[in-house]
């Protein structure tokens, strides 16, 4: 069911002639789709335009749909009111570490499941799949205790924000499925030529797995970028906070300065939107194929 | 050629199997350590914690007392209320999301100009962080300067307090008509409905994408046959699309319900569970118990009950459509 045929539908759309005869029903369709699209995109417009207004225009009622004057200096003001550079560095550091860590652990494990024979394979694989069913809620309190002084003693460190996420059952599963679909003949040929597992993985399999690697990387990066509850629990110092905590603290501190709060929200939302616009094909198809939970 | 290799002898083969095993386990080691320490062990540890009086530090063993406290003891009133709020939240988000997403997907699936643009627009909310986007919505719902009140005034309706409004929506509507309703019929608070609106906005794109994938897996031959037989669009939708799409619909239903049961960020940012606890969903109640009151034992018991509900839904999904769900 989730085996997406999104690609085929795109292809079939491309085969049909681009210009179709005018039909009243297509006007209705565009009216329906267009008004919904406008509703869904409008909050972004509202965020951006509020961020460009000055304090008085932002807090006036009725609001102005188009700013009377543009005040780009709001972004500089908002930026200087909180350690945003630090927040961003923290988030980038944590998200990059999580992504690279997951790629390494998941690639190795997925390869073992797809191409190696060993004792206990099916049991271990079942256990890995079982982690997909353990919801966050079950592990968040014990993980909080584990990070505490009696065990790992990692509160207020980057490690606490990284370590719990560098192994992901879901990423292992996705990569294994892809590795299994890789032609076995290539593997056998490489083995006969004397290539070991690591050699084959590194020089043949991985270069041919870019789409799935990008998908896994994007999923993990986005999840880490958007993480909120866990960093809220394990950090108390401002200098270790990620952007999501930063923007939340900022909005409670500058609650009535709506133009600055919206400028701050723009900081946090914009990079992800840019990433999405660049990689949207990968992302949308990835979500469709994997059918993962939100 | 193979006979020239040491593997041909029995010892050689055993040696190679051993080496292969060692290699495989080395490959698996990092992932197993990670999943073991932060997924498996905690799942059992959580149950262990829930069997103790555990307020920041471990206290005496109390057996299932924490569960009793949560289900019918001193904690039960707040817990059941939060569970009720959570189910209301599910009820006022999931069916609406599915209906709208289906309505979009069915139209968008056919060849149409600007398809890519629409898909991008619908999916954009889903990838933005719930925290930052919820802050934007809190501003839209602002009771004094907000966009929503301006829209209400535009159509001649009175301004509302939105996220600060503990009164039920039915109560508010009836009140506007000069009627009174009994307390049990007041409906969910306007604050909770505000969070629901945000949730629908945020998740719809994801469901559109899943529905599109589901539609793509229906063989076009059914449609061709139906058209040849002169079926109307309406008949095609109800007699072909809906039945054949039902595994997808069921999948989306379960995934969306689980997502809504777990919702935390948007509620935390928009209302903090208020006003008057009317939007305190169960994950916020767990957060309050565990993090703000430091009661790990009770918090774990609550979390386990929530997890039980989620696992039940997951099993439903596997039992009913598991075999029909396949991955590429």
Q: Give the terminus-to-terminus CA distance of chain B.
A: 37 Å
Point out poorly predicted stretches of chain A. 1-17
Helix run count of chain A: 15
CATH class call of the largest domain in chain B: Mainly Alpha
What does this structure look like?
The complex is a heterodimer of chains A (294) and B (328). In chain A, 71% of the residues lie in helices and 0% in strands. By secondary structure, chain A is an all-alpha fold. Chain A has a single domain, classed as Orthogonal Bundle (MetI-like fold). Chain B is mostly helical and 328 residues long. The model of chain B has no long low-confidence stretch (mean pLDDT 88). Chains A and B meet through helix 1, helix 2, helix 5, helix 6 and helix 7 of A and helix 1, helix 4, helix 5, helix 6 and helix 7 of B.
Record the SSE blueprint:
The complex is a heterodimer of chains A (294) and B (328).
Chain A: H1 6-15, H2 24-52, H3 55-58, H4 73-81, H5 84-115, H6 121-131, H7 136-146, H8 158-162, H9 169-181, H10 184-192, H11 197-205, H12 210-225, H13 229-234, H14 243-253, H15 258-290
Chain B: H1 10-50, E1 52-55, E2 57-61, H2 65-71, H3 76-91, H4 94-109, H5 115-127, H6 130-140, H7 147-154, H8 169-176, H9 190-216, H10 220-228, H11 233-262, H12 265-270, H13 282-292, H14 296-321
Antiparallel strand pairs in B: 1-2
Helix pairs in contact in B: 1-14, 2-3, 2-14, 3-11, 3-13, 4-9, 5-9, 9-11, 11-14, 13-14
């Amino acid at each position: 069911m989730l085996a997406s045929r999104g690609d085929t539908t795109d292809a079939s759309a491309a085969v049909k002639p681009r210009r179709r005869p005018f039909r009243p029903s297509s006007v209705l369709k565009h009216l329906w789709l267009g008004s919904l699209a406008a509703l869904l995109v409008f909050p972004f417009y509202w965020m951006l335009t509020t961020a460009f207004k000055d304090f008085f225009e932002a807090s006036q009622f009725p609001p102005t749909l188009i700013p009377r004057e543009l005040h780009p200096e709001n972004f500089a003001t908002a930026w200087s009111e909180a350690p945003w550079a630090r927040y961003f560095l923290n988030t980038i550091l944590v998200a990059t570490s999580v992504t690279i860590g997951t790629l390494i652990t998941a690639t190795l494990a997925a390869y073992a499941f797809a191409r190696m024979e060993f004792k206990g394979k099916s049991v271990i694989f079942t256990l890995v799949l079982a982690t997909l069913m353990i919801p966050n809620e079950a592990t968040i309190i014990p993980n909080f205790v584990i990070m505490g002084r009696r065990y790992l003693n990692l509160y207020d460190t980057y490690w606490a924000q990284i370590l719990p996420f560098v192994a992901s059952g879901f990423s292992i599963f996705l990569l294994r499925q892809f590795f299994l679909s890789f032609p076995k003949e290539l593997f056998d040929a490489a083995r006969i030529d004397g290539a070991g597992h690591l050699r084959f993985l590194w020089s043949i399999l991985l270069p041919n797995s870019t789409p799935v690697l990008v998908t896994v990387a994007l999923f993990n990066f986005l999840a880490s970028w958007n993480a909120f509850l866990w960093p809220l629990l394990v950090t108390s110092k401002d200098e270790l906070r990620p952007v999501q905590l930063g923007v939340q603290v900022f909005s409670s501190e500058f609650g009535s300065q709506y133009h600055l709060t919206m400028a701050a929200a723009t900081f946090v939302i914009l990079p992800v939107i840019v990433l999405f616009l660049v990689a949207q094909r990968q992302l949308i198809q990835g979500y469709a194929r994997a059918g993962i939970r939100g | 050629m193979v006979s020239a290799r040491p593997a041909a002898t029995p010892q050689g083969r055993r040696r190679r199997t051993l080496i292969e095993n060692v290699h495989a386990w080395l490959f698996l080691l990092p992932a197993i350590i990670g999943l073991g320490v932060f997924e498996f062990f905690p799942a059992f540890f959580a149950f262990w914690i829930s069997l103790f009086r555990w307020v920041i530090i471990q206290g005496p063993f109390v057996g299932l007392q924490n569960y009793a406290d949560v289900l019918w003891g001193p904690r039960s009133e707040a817990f059941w209320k939060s569970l009720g709020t959570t189910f209301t939240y599910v009820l006022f988000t999931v069916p609406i999301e599915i209906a709208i997403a289906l309505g979009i997907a069915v139209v968008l699936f056919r060849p149409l100009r600007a398809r890519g643009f629409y898909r991008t627009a619908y999916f954009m909310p889903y990838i933005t962080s719930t925290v930052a986007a919820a802050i934007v919505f809190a501003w839209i719902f602002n009771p004094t300067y907000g966009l929503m009140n301006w829209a209400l005034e535009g159509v001649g309706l009175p301004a509302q307090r939105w996220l600060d409004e503990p009164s039920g929506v039915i109560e508010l509507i009836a009140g506007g008509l000069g009627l009174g309703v009994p307390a049990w019929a007041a409906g969910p608070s306007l604050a909770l409905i505000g969070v629901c609106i945000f949730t629908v906005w945020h998740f719809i794109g994801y469901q559109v994408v899943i529905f599109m994938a589901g539609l793509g897996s229906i063989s076009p031959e059914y449609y061709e046959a139906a058209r040849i037989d002169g079926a109307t669009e309406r008949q095609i939708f109800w007699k072909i699309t809906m039945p054949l799409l039902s595994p997808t619909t069921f999948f989306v239903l379960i995934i969306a319900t689980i997502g809504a049961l777990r919702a935390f960020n948007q509620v935390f940012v928009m209302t903090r569970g208020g006003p008057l606890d009317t939007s305190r969903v169960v994950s916020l109640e767990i957060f309050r118990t565990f993090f703000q009151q430091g009661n790990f034992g009770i918090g774990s018991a609550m979390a386990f009950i929530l997890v039980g509900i989620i696992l039940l839904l997951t099993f439903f999904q596997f039992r009913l459509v598991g075999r029909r769900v396949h991955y590429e």
